[in-house]
Design goal:
The chain has 183 residues and is of the alpha+beta class. The protein is 39% helix and 22% strand.
Length: 183
């Protein structure tokens, strides 16, 4: 009989991907350009802080290897921003989840998202970004996705989503919960 640890836990961690490499390369190029081009001291300092400091900060958060998304026997962990991980991470137990939802933010970048649809009686998720202003923002950015789902979602950015492994883990731990592709 296989050990419980052999269960198909799905876990994705922050790391380097194509999009983050592009951001890092862009920051490095702008930093070099600002250092070599003819700009005033104020412009250089501001640009170096923005692109150099921002690039270093982004590199730190990209290689943090913190959990971005996890599905296990207890439910779904919506990993937070690597910069404020503790304050922005939320765990949603299976008894509150009605579906795992895959969706895409309709913008120039077309960012994929993954989240959970929750029972109406489930309380708000912990952490910032759960109030009226956040709901209004998500309705504007993703009008085709219910605000409750959008607020219980994470952008697939800085990590990779394996749909097959996600579906297998959800089917194993919560057979009554479907993985829904909302486009």
């Amino acid at each position: 009989m296989p050990a419980e640890s052999a269960a198909p836990v799905y876990e994705a961690r922050y790391g380097v991907d194509r999009r983050s490499l592009g951001v890092l390369a862009g920051s490095a190029l702008f930093t070099v350009f600002l250092a070599l081009a003819d700009f005033t001291l104020v412009q250089r300092v501001l640009g170096l802080v923005l692109f150099g400091g921002g690039g270093v900060f982004f590199a730190f958060t990209t290689v943090s290897r913190k959990v971005a998304f996890r599905v296990d026997g207890t439910g779904v962990l919506l990993g937070g921003s690597p910069a404020r991980y503790q304050a922005t991470t939320a765990h949603v137990p299976w008894e509150d989840i009605t579906a795992v939802v895959l969706w895409r933010q309709h913008s120039a970048a077309g960012i994929p998202w993954v989240g959970v649809a929750r029972r109406p009686e489930a309380g708000p998720l912990p952490g910032p970004g759960q109030g009226r202003a956040a709901r209004a923002t998500m309705r504007a950015l993703a009008p085709e996705v219910p605000a409750d789902v959008a607020l219980a979602s994470r952008a697939v950015s800085g990590w990779r989503l394996d749909r097959d492994a996600l579906s297998a883990a959800v089917a194993h731990f919560a057979p009554g919960v479907q993985v829904v592709d909302a486009g």
